[in-house]
Design goal:
- The protein is of the alpha+beta class and 246 residues long.
- It has one domain: Beta-Lactamase (2-Layer Sandwich), CATH 3.30.450.20.
- The chain has a six-stranded antiparallel sheet with strand order 3-2-6-5-4-7, sandwiched between helices.
- The two termini are 17 Å apart.
Length: 246
C-alpha cells in the first residue's frame, strides 16, 4: 500500500511510487494522540485491530473528551457513533450520526474518504493535521488520529479516533469554526512503529465541559467557501518507499 503524505507547501503537486513509511512516535505532536495510539496498540496485541468491545473508557478517561468512534456505512459514509464532550464544545454541535466527510469540501473529501477506506480495509493508521477557521479568519491547527476497530467476527467496520487543537487558544469553543482543510495527511503501518507500554490512568474527576452553542448542522463546515489558493499553501503529494526491516 502506498503512503500518502499531504504536506503544506507552496509547491506544485508531485508524486512518487513506494510503500508505507516507517514513522516514529515523535512525529505525533499532541499528548492526546500519543496516549490514544499507545492504548490502541497495547490492546490490539499484534492483531490488525482490537475489538470494539475491548475499548474500556475508564482506561483513557483523561482524553475521552476528544475521542470519537466512527462506523463505516454501506453508502461509503463514516458516521459518528460516539463523540467526546470536548469535541462537541469545540465545534458547538452534537456529532452523533453525522458523517465525518460532510465536514470537508473539495479535494479534502476524496483524500479523507480514501484514508478512511485504508484504515478499515487495510488496518492502516492515519495521522492528520488540519486547519479550522472562523468567519473572522481566526485559525487553529488540529491533530487527528484514525485507527481501525473490529467486530467480534474480526471484520473492521469502525474507526477509533481523536481530534485536538495543537495549541491552547483561549477563543476555541467560543467562536464558530466555519471551514477547515487538510494540511498534512499520513498513512502509517502500525507494525513498523515503535511500541510503548500503555500506562493505566488513576481515577480522577473530569472537569465539566462548556455548553455548546447552537448551530444549524454539521455540514455547514462543508458549505463555507474554502480558502483560495492565494490564502493558503498548496498541497504536495509524496509517496515514499518502504523502510527496511522492523
Amino acid at each position: 500500500m502506498n503512503t500518502v503524505e499531504w504536506l503544506s507547501r507552496r509547491d506544485r503537486m508531485v508524486g512518487a511510487s513506494g510503500g508505507r513509511r516507517s514513522w516514529g512516535l515523535s512525529d505525533m505532536k499532541h499528548k492526546t494522540i500519543h496516549t490514544l495510539f499507545d492504548y490502541w496498540n497495547a490492546i490490539r496485541a499484534g492483531r490488525p485491530a482490537p475489538l470494539r468491545s475491548e475499548i474500556q473508557p475508564g482506561e483513557i478517561r483523561s482524553i475521552l473528551p476528544n475521542v470519537f468512534i466512527l462506523e463505516r456505512e454501506k453508502d461509503e459514509s463514516y458516521r459518528f457513533r460516539l463523540a467526546g464532550t470536548g469535541l462537541c464544545s469545540i465545534y458547538g454541535m452534537e456529532f452523533r450520526n453525522h458523517n465525518l466527510l460532510s465536514m470537508w469540501q473539495g479535494e479534502c473529501v476524496a483524500s479523507l474518504r480514501n484514508t478512511l477506506d485504508e484504515v478499515t480495509r487495510n488496518a492502516a493508521v492515519s495521522v492528520i493535521e488540519y486547519t479550522a477557521s472562523t468567519s473572522a479568519e481566526r485559525e487553529a491547527t488540529f491533530e487527528m488520529i484514525l485507527m481501525p476497530l473490529a467486530q467480534e467476527n474480526g471484520v473492521i467496520t469502525r474507526v477509533l479516533g481523536a481530534a485536538v487543537p495543537i495549541d491552547e487558544l483561549p477563543w476555541i469553543g467560543d467562536h464558530l469554526l466555519s471551514r477547515q482543510w487538510i494540511d498534512r495527511l499520513q498513512l502509517l503501518d502500525p507494525d513498523r512503529m515503535p511500541k510503548r507500554e500503555h500506562v493505566a490512568e488513576p481515577a480522577r474527576r473530569l472537569p465539566l465541559p462548556r455548553k455548546p452553542f447552537s448551530v444549524a448542522h454539521i455540514s455547514s463546515l462543508a458549505n463555507r467557501r474554502p480558502p483560495l489558493r492565494s490564502e493558503r499553501s498548496y498541497l504536495r503529494l509524496v509517496k515514499t518507499a518502504i523502510a527496511p526491516g522492523e
